[in-house]
Design goal:
Structural class: mainly alpha
Mean pLDDT: 90
Order of helices and strands: HH
Number of strands: 0
Number of domains: 1
Distance between the termini: 188 Å
Strand content: under 5%
Shape: rod-shaped
Amino acid sequence: MLALDGTFIVILASFIVFLVFMKTQFFTPVMAIKTERENTIAAGHQVSKEAEDKTTQLTEACRVQLAEAKRKAQLVISEKREIAKGNAQQKLTEARDLANQHYDAQARQLQSQSQSVYNNLASQKDELVQLILARLSSLTGALTS
């Protein structure tokens, strides 16, 4: 069996001293490093979660701003389109009026020229009748001879 002599007590005492020494020199610093590492990891996770939340918020804000910008752009496009339609209609009306004015002016000028030619022919009617009769009589005279 086991004998309890002085060596056992010395070994037991040296073992206890060794445990105390190991606790102060090894276990305590290792546990402090482990605790510090866990705290650092937890802080990293917290920072990561905050960054993810902020990213989500910024993404949502950008999406909202983009939707608002698209809506405003559509309004501006619609307004400009309506203005352009109004301008086009106005230009078309002006062009149509100008064309009608030119048409009326050309019609009046043509009517005036037609009236002038008619008056000119009317004034020369007697001379032309006399000329035609003279030619007919010369033709009938030539035919009878």
